[in-house]
Every structure is written in C-alpha cells, then in structure tokens.
C-alpha cells in the first residue's frame, strides 16, 4: 500500500490515500488533504515522493486543522502546528496529540499504526530541557490522557529539520496492529531517565493486515542504539553498520515471511542523515546489504540524540500466498521485548 512514486507507474489517483513529497518546507494543500510536503529535503537524486494507495476511492476532508483521508480500514491524517513565540514544546505537542488521538477515536480509526514527527531545533535546549525530550513529554502525556497503553503504541519516526512548525502525519486503522520488539534494543518506552523525563512512546515496528490482504511491516526510525546506549558516537559509518544490524535483527524477529527463505531487507528504506555529505559512503554500505533490491530515500534530517548521525526507517509488504497467517495470539513471542 506504500510505495515511492518512482515505482508507482499508475497515474490514476482514485485510490490515493496519501501523496507525500519531501522538500524544503512543510506544506499542506488546502484543496487536497491527500497531498502534504515534509521539510526534510531529499539528498542528491534521491526519490522525493511517497504514495499510499487503497483499492477503493477514499473520502477526504478537514476537521479543524487536521487533514484526513480514509477508505476501508485505513485513515491518513496530518496536522501542522506553528509554535507561538515563547511557547513550550511540551504543551504544543501534548495539545496536537490530544487533538489527533481524539480525532482518530471519533472517526472510528482508533489505532495509530505509524506516526511521523518533524520539528525544528530538535537538539536545542529550551526551558532546561532538550526539545526532543520536551516533545516526548508532551506526547507521553497525550497517550496517557487518551488511555492508550504501551502495548498499543504505534511505530514512529521523530526527526529534526530546518522547516518551521511541528509536522505530524500518521496512518491509523480500524483494527490494531501487532507490535514487534528488537531483541538488540530495549523498548524505547522503557528508556531510563537520563534520556528524558518521559520515554519515547513508540514500538520498534508494527505488523498489520494491509488493504489487499497483504501483511505490512512498518519499521520505526532505527539508529545505532544497543540496549539503550548510543554506539559509535559521532562515527557515521560505524553507526550505519550498527543500524543495519538492528534492522536485520528486527526483520528476523518479525518473521513476516516465515516461508520465504530470504529474510531480506525491507522493500523501502528511508534514511535520515545529519550530514548530507555522507550519502555516498552510506549508500555503499546499504547497497551491499540490500543488493540494490530495496528502494532507498535519502533525506537531510537531524537525529534526536546529538551523538547520532543516521536513522533509518523501513516498510515491507508480503502477499498472503507468500506467507502463513497472522494471528496476534501466535505472535506472543514477537511482542515488544521486556528487559
Ligand atoms: C531511538 O531508537 C532512536 O521518538 O518517535 C527513533 C524513532 C527514535 C522514533 C520517536 C525516536 C523516535 O530511540 C530515535
């Protein structure tokens, strides 16, 4: 259901759920809630557009400043909020998330499956707290207010960029997904105190049944973190190798294609680089892993820990005949790893 536009030859947009472009600024099209732009600019000749498709035509509109599109069991929603001068990012984030989670519940798609968050000056300190940590605090408060427990946290990405405003977009479902943990990492929502007053509210990955019966795996932003500790601070190449190890471990643990001999890399990867100049070296390492069978989008983005240079998210899809059934009860072993 999710593809980069470079591999999406079908121009008919009857079943278009989302059309996401990457550029210099965050943008919303008041005339078409399916179309948004995210202000993490593509690096070099990277793909710069992602489309999500449904078999049926979606319904779209605005609910206040939340743009949405829905069809079948899925909903795409987005919100772009400007930070008033002197405002506290905790409060801005909490308000945005309370608004979004309330909308999802009222619209009948109460399960956030995947959320992307982009914010300016992510590593800056404000009011005695790093802005990313303030964001985490506001988000955690909103999840608590909406009574969404840890086992229902979505997969997520949180990235800094130059573009102004807090941009949030998401995929939500009528049906909950199955969270997947990474045995090499502790669950982010169990991070100890030094990483902030409230831990990040996300699952390492989530599995859900796609609109055409496919099994979809959405992988959160993944970095050079083992346990809860940053590995190879300030070393982008070593961090890339560590991140690949984390992704391999996650994909193996998810076992979305147990009958497929190769537990290969996800079909889509999105790579956020703090230093765009690293693209060539990083691409060499990633291509060696994917053997050029994955599509890779490279974006200029700032990682939420100052000592992280790279973060990689992924998406994969398996058609039903390639795979056995997904029953959450069968997958108890794949739930988030408890330390
Ligand atoms: C990490 O593993 C890296 O706060 O939503 C990755 C993906 C990260 C999502 C988030 C943070 C988030 O902690 C950072």
Structural commentary:
With about 350 residues, this protein is α+β, with helices and mostly antiparallel strands. It has one domain (about 1-335): 60s Ribosomal Protein L30, Chain: A, CATH 3.30.1330. The chain contains four helices and 21 strands. The strands form five sheets. A six-stranded mixed sheet has the order 6-7-8-13-9-12, with helices on one face. It has a six-stranded mixed sheet with strand order 14-15-16-21-19-20, covered by helices on one side. The protein has a five-stranded mixed sheet with strand order 1-5-2-4-3, with no helix packed on it. A hairpin with a 2-residue loop joins strand 7 (about 65-70) and strand 8 (about 75-80). Helix 3 (about 235-255) packs parallel to helix 4 (about 280-290). The radius of gyration is 18 Å and the shape is globular. Mean pLDDT is about 90; it is low at about 325-339. Bound molecules: 3-(2-carboxyethyl)benzoic acid. The site of 3-(2-carboxyethyl)benzoic acid has 13 residues, from strand 12 and strand 16.
Write a concise synopsis of the structure shown:
The protein has 339 residues and is of the alpha+beta class.
List the helices and strands and how they pair.
Elements: E1 2-4, E2 16-22, E3 27-28, E4 35-38, E5 49-53, E6 59-63, E7 66-71, E8 74-81, H1 89-107, E9 111-119, E10 125-126, E11 129-130, H2 131-145, E12 155-160, E13 166-173, E14 178-180, E15 205-209, E16 215-222, E17 225-226, E18 229-230, H3 236-254, E19 268-273, H4 279-290, E20 295-300, E21 310-318
Parallel strand pairs: 2-4, 9-12, 19-20
Antiparallel strand pairs: 1-5, 2-5, 3-4, 6-7, 7-8, 8-13, 9-13, 10-11, 14-15, 15-16, 16-21, 17-18, 19-21
Helix pairs in contact: 1-2, 3-4
The site of 3-(2-carboxyethyl)benzoic acid has 13 residues, from strand 12 and strand 16.
């Amino acid at each position: 259901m999710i593809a980069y536009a470079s591999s999406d030859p079908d121009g008919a947009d009857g079943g278009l759920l989302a059309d996401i472009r990457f550029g210099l600024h965050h943008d919303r099209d008041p005339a078409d809630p399916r179309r948004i732009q995210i202000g993490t600019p593509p690096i070099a000749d990277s793909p710069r557009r992602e489309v999500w498709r449904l078999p049926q035509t979606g319904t779209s509109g605005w609910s206040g400043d939340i743009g949405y599109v829905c069809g079948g069991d899925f909903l795409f929603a987005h919100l772009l909020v400007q930070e008033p001068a002197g405002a506290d990012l905790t409060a801005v984030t909490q308000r945005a998330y309370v608004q979004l989670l309330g909308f999802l519940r009222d619209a009948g798609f109460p399960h956030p499956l995947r959320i992307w968050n982009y914010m300016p000056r992510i590593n800056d300190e404000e009011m005695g707290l790093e802005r990313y940590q303030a964001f985490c605090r506001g988000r955690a408060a909103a999840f608590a207010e909406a009574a969404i427990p840890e086992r229902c946290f979505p997969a997520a990405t949180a990235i800094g960029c130059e573009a102004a405003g807090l941009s949030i977009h998401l995929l939500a479902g009528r049906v909950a997904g199955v969270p997947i943990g990474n045995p090499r990492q502790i669950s982010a929502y169990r991070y100890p105190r030094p990483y902030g007053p409230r831990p990040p509210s996300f699952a390492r990955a989530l599995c859900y049944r796609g609109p055409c019966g496919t099994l979809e795996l959405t992988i959160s932003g993944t970095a050079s973190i083992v346990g809860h500790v940053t590995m190879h601070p300030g070393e982008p190449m070593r961090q890339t190798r560590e991140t690949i190890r984390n992704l391999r471990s996650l994909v193996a643990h998810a076992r979305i294609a147990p009958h497929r001999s190769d537990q290969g890399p996800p079909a889509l990867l999105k790579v956020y680089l703090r230093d765009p100049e690293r693209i060539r070296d990083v691409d060499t390492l990633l291509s060696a892993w994917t053997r050029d069978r994955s599509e890779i989008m490279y974006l200029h983005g700032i990682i939420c820990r100052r000592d992280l240079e790279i973060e990689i998210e992924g998406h994969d899809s398996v058609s039903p005949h390639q795979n056995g059934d997904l029953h959450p009860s069968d997958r108890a072993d794949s739930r988030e790893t408890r330390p």
